[in-house]
Amino acid sequence: MATQRILDFLATRRPEGPCLVVDLDVVRENYQAFEKALPDSSIYYAVKANPAPEILKLLATLGSSFDTASVAEIEMALNAGATPDRISYGNTIKKERDIARAFELGIRLFAVDCVEEVEKVARVAPGSRVFCRVLTDGAGAEWPLSRKFGCVPAMAVDVLRHAKTLGLDPYGVSFHVGSQQTDLDAWDRALADAQAVFARLAEEGIVLKMVNMGGGFPTRYLRDVPAAQAYGQAIFSALRKHFGNRIPETIIEPGRGMVGNAGVIKSEVVLISKKADNDNVRWVYLDIGKFGGLAETMDEAIRYPISTPRDGAETEPCVLAGPTCDSADVLYEKTPYPLPVSLTIGDEVLIEGTGAYTTTYASVAFNGFEPLRAYVI
């Protein structure tokens, strides 16, 4: 739901065009909820979710560390007040010169998922800590992140062994159970794999110290999701189950779960039409679509809550689409979206839960539409 602060901002400022408004109070509450749910884990905010300077500064002040995917994101975190020891270069696909630049900036913690990446780190960031990402199945996630990143556990053993021979510090393993993960058992399966890597390397005298449990913590969209406390309890139980009393250092990387519910996009209905006189489904076109920041509607993976000034009236199923001259710019068609019959051209609608992965997914100027403007209050 849009907070009163967001509603007041929109009512008084009346910003032109589609825009995202983020309430920092919600971000603060989310950070504190993660701290309470997993008090023994370090929080590394996934900068890619929303790199607004105001969000990064707030989180740095609260004591957060940062998961970054590029040199630019590393510099954003540093500019926000984070020290290099609170920054992880968590992308497993890095140019060698970018690793060198990160090392120059003081970064000493790098993600890898193959021996080739280990060799790059060893050449230009000698002595650094590396953690190897292990593949997970991503079952239960609305936005899976498997296949492109990570390697099977047996290969992770080889990767970390190779890191040791090249003078790096084989620090631990990481996994990502998939974004918007609603299955509490997902971490249990992944931690079993992590423990297997720990055990295998321990036999060779290589003692890993850290498990990076990634992100995946969800935002409430149309369906209820478990609270941070439920995730914390499930993860701690899984840690005890697989590691006993020798629980390693742990990291979590919330992105969506930190900022998703803190933001609301204000949009306007541009057109409502039908494709035939006997068509029983209306097409509702908004002034924002896939290319304006709603890329996560791809395959209708993320279904955002939408509120209108006519809520409470009779509804009917609508196809929801964006404004661009691209046939891919359709948000919801397979499963039409129920919207008020009385909805009309010019009505403003609020797309809720849009604080994450919207400004960063917006195109620069496709069809001449400006990038999604954002206000942080």
TrEMBL record:
Alphabetically list the UniProt keywords: Lyase, Pyridoxal phosphate
**Enzyme Commission identifier(s):** 4.1.1.17
Lyase as UniProt keyword: yes
Reactions that this protein is recorded to catalyse: L-ornithine + H(+) = putrescine + CO2
Q: Which Pfam families match?
A: Orn_Arg_deC_N (PF02784)
Pathway named in the protein's UniProt entry: Amine and polyamine biosynthesis; putrescine biosynthesis via L-ornithine pathway; putrescine from L-ornithine: step 1/1
Q: Which residues carry out catalysis?
A: 325
Membership in a protein family: Belongs to the Orn/Lys/Arg decarboxylase class-II family.
Q: What is the name attached to this protein's record?
A: ornithine decarboxylase
**Source species, please?**
Nitratireductor basaltis
Q: What is the lineage of its organism?
A: Bacteria, Pseudomonadati, Pseudomonadota, Alphaproteobacteria, Hyphomicrobiales
